[in-house]
Amino acid sequence: xxxxxxGMNQTRLxxxxxxxxxxxxxxxxxxxDRLMALVRVRLDPRLKRRVDPxxxxxxTYLTIQRKFxxxxxxxxxxxxxxxxxxxxxxxxxxHRHHLGVQARDIGREISIEPHPFSSAESIAxxxxxxxxxxxxxxxxxxxxxxxxxxxxINEMEPAARELLVLRxxxxxxxxxxxxxxxxxxxxxxxxxxxxxxxxxxxLEDLPGGVEALVx
Length: 215
Fold this sequence. Notes:
- It contains 12 helices and no strands.
- It starts with a helix and ends with a helix.
- It is mainly alpha-helical.
């Protein structure tokens, strides 16, 4: 169900559809933090010194301005998910522009170390785990933690990692994540619980556990 169907922001969306650019800008800004989180977690590590996430969002907004009338004519998905879709497309364009054919390798290999074949999402997920775990007082212990987390991330299925990224980094609701994945909310929730359970089992004896991430 879209905002047009359920009445959420219907008046403001209608005003934006009539050409009120300030309303459209305000609507975009209300979702900026969530879109920024998306860009930060999915931007390839090789580009983090070359690409400003704010620039990606600015370019996305220019696309939103151009495409908004067409969206209004057929709002097949909720407004925020449409913004997210256009942001993902702009991010893909950014990867292709800077990385060329190398962009197709993103996601093929999982590691918490940023190298040409790393998955940006998996790196971010691992870094979040490491950041939330109890800090190790010795370098050797910290290194062991890194290896354990790396192994755990490698052992998870890509679909499970993606669901954790959607829920914990992009902060999508279960319903939103289901729409993004093209499955029912019930199926999404079941997959999420299995992903959390799998991660807990993989890291159950690690100091600090993963409760801070998946609680």
